[in-house]
Design goal:
354 residues; Transferase, Pyrimidine Nucleoside Phosphorylase, Chain A, domain 3; 7 strands; alpha/beta
Length: 354
């Protein structure tokens, strides 16, 4: 007997039934999506079936219900990090913005931790950029392969924990070759930032497409997030940009608001020129390391400023700054004090001893 029928009250859809709905541009329910994605993650479908399902979802356009159902499965199968009721923040992005910038959110986490907020960052290796968060951290001397208990201890002692995605979402290995062969964005590109193994309820999340801001905020609302700021620069950056406007969706007290952030309302100069993006682009890990270390050591420049702005947003959602502007000023002060660089050094020392 199929026990999932008894548990859910409705039978699992067959693959063909789900595909027929999708190709007819009909949406799956949360439970239907959960059933299909779980079959994919448990390696119960053929390569052709997996490719067909995720491509059909992409072509139709994933709904809030479908994304939520997929997140349900990822959270069910994850190897989690139990932090109890501790207040933690995650800084991450979907990637895929094609900008090839240095690892801004990874650098920002050291500023956030040095400012008094515990960070549980979730990330992996490069997919669409020159350097992923895991690649950068390894280049800085960090051991990224800590066990869950060690990640918890690391957060306790250094204020930072890094959860290398393949170690926590082991079922993703069944999908990885198919995603790589397809070479297009699928629902799995947006699931990572929604499935932090430590269940962070406060988050700064960059997205590669403005159209995803409100739907992903709604997914996070359904899943119980407390305060989240989702951002997308009008120039395509999946970070808060210092050039032009940054679109945002903010989830706070169970309400979602949308708006624009720009240098003026962040309290910054509006003189970041056309060379701004060239100055923060990288071609390899060494480029990224250089910019990160400059930012954390308070070397004046675009790298430091964009790290401070994004760290400031995380301080705002983390609750230690009443406004975004206050968070940004606090982040600049933390960098100037030298505490952010010390935070990096403590993190490297702890992880490399494991």
């Amino acid at each position: 007997m199929n026990t999932s029928v008894l548990l859910s009250g409705t039978p699992d859809p067959t693959v063909s039934e789900a595909l027929n709905k999708l190709v007819e541009k009909k949406h799956l329910s949360r439970s239907e999506t959960r059933s299909i994605i779980k079959k994919i993650m448990l390696n119960e479908l053929s390569v052709a079936q997996v490719a067909a399902v995720i491509l059909a979802l992409r072509v139709k356009g994933e709904t809030v219900e479908e994304i939520t159902g997929a997140v349900d499965v990822m959270r069910e199968l994850v190897s989690g990090v139990d932090l109890g009721d501790k207040e933690i923040v995650d800084l991450c992005g979907t990637g895929g913005d094609g900008a090839n910038t240095f690892n801004i959110s990874t650098a920002a986490m050291f500023v956030v931790a040095a400012s008094g907020i515990k960070v549980a960052k979730h990330g992996g290796r490069a997919v669409s950029s020159s350097t992923g968060s895991a690649d950068l951290l390894e280049g800085l001397g960090v051991n990224i392969n800590l066990k869950s208990d060690d990640v918890r201890d690391c957060i306790e002692k250094t204020g930072i924990g890094f959860m290398f995605a393949p170690n926590h979402h082991t079922a993703m290995k069944n999908v990885a070759p198919i995603r790589r062969d397809l070479g297009v964005r699928t629902i799995f590109n947006i699931l990572g930032p929604l499935t932090n193994p430590a269940r962070a309820k406060r988050q700064l999340m960059g997205v590669f497409d403005k159209k995803l801001l409100k739907p992903l905020a709604e997914v996070l609302r359904i899943l119980g997030a407390e305060h989240v700021l989702l951002v997308h620069g009008e120039n395509g950056l999946d970070e808060i940009s210092l050039v032009g406007n940054t679109y945002f969706a903010e989830l706070k007290k169970n309400q979602i608001t949308e708006g624009l952030i720009n240098p003026e309302n962040m309290g910054l100069k509006n003189s970041y020129g056309v060379d701004f993006f060239e100055s923060i682009k990288t071609q390899n890990i060494e480029d990224s390391k250089k910019l990160v270390l400059e930012a954390l050591t308070d070397v004046p420049g675009n790298a430091r400023d964009i790290v401070a702005v994004n760290a400031g947003a995380a301080l705002y959602v983390g609750g230690v700054a009443p406004t975004l502007r206050d968070g940004i000023f606090k982040a600049f002060d933390t960098i100037k004090s030298g505490a952010a660089r010390v935070s990096l050094e403590k993190f490297v020392h702890f992880t490399s001893s494991k």
